[in-house]
Amino acid sequence: MTYLRAVDPFPLESADDTKLHEFYRSLASGRLVTTRCLQCRTTAWPPRGFCGECASDRFEWVDLPGEGTIHAFTVQEAGLPAGFDGPRVFAILKVGGHRVFAALVNADMAALGIGQRVRLAPLRVADDPKGNARWLPAFTTA
Fold first, then answer.
1. Do the bridges between strand 138-141 and strand 98-104 make them parallel or antiparallel, or are there none, so unpaired?
2. How many CB atoms lie within 10 A of CB 66?
3. Alpha-carbon distance 103 to 75, whole Å?
């Protein structure tokens, strides 16, 4: 049986749809980036089109480390979003001075622990309505 989604749960990533398209383009090439305000130099997570400190909309893209550590995690076995197989591990990770919420992929759930090292492993999700690839930040245990 085929189920249709009434709402697309993934972000549209093209330059036509978001000024944060560089974030997704970088994920596709295996890099984690975020925005830094050109006025007050605040680095944001998640990437933002304006600064939460000074409200400037001028920003530059900066690389974050491709590795971090697990701060907290949970295992979701039911009620997963469309396109995700279970069980799924979601974690808050310490990455480059930020707390990043992301999925952990290919994780041995029995061996997961706070402080464990992780590395970036971007997750390709359902293509957009035009057939373009889409990516979400994800990590795997190091």
1. parallel
2. 16
3. 10
